[in-house]
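Chapter summary example: a protein plus S-adenosylmethionine.
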Amino acid sequence: MLTETFAAGTQLEAQPSRTIPDYLQDNYWWAYIHPLAVRFFERQWLVNAILCGNFARLRDAVLDELGAPISGRTLQVACVYGDFSVRLADRIAPGGSLDVVDVLPIQLQNLRRKLTTSTPVTLHHCDSTALGFADASYDQAVIFFLLHEQPALVRKQTIAEALRVVKPGGKLVIVDYHRPAQVHPIRYLLRPLLRALEPYALD
Ligand SMILES: C[S@@+](CC[C@H](N)C(=O)[O-])C[C@H]1O[C@@H](n2cnc3c(N)ncnc32)[C@H](O)[C@@H]1O
């Protein structure tokens, strides 16, 4: 099991490449792994542009779904560029907590830099397919634009793990792409783009 917890301000060790999933290394090195990737993509306007101007609407829909404030234990599966986690942390109720997992230390380091809040946020170096948490230990979990980047089997394991750690009666919020409508013009633009950049999003 690959679970390592980083407290605020901790320097993270470089991660051995064997712990990086192949699909991430092969298809997304330019987006998440390369040190210049973080410097390039960590821009709110750019993340919003990639989501066709929908970032804030989708982020706020997740936050509203989780509560205002959000009580109990919350898990975010995988870091996100932009202010998603910062806003999520700001919504955590007194006595509540937020755990964020990611398989890339560089992404956890980047998130740590963005978190200025006093809310208890714990970052975990951990794979979404093998969360090192007890069954039914979270009141809610959120997976924001991760699943389309994962091969089908990995995606299933990620969902199974998230469902395992959320309490019965708790909530799992998933936000991701859906298929464009048959007649939508973007359908024809999107296909070649996805084939080149996000191959697992096609299904
Ligand atoms: C949530 S997704 C994409 C989100 C969105 N496109 C954005 O703006 O960041 C990207 C994150 O997922 C993480 N990730 C990918 N596969 C993972 C896995 N198996 N376990 C944990 N984190 C993973 C990557 O390291 C990266 O930080």
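Key point: The first strand starts at residue 3 and ends at 6.
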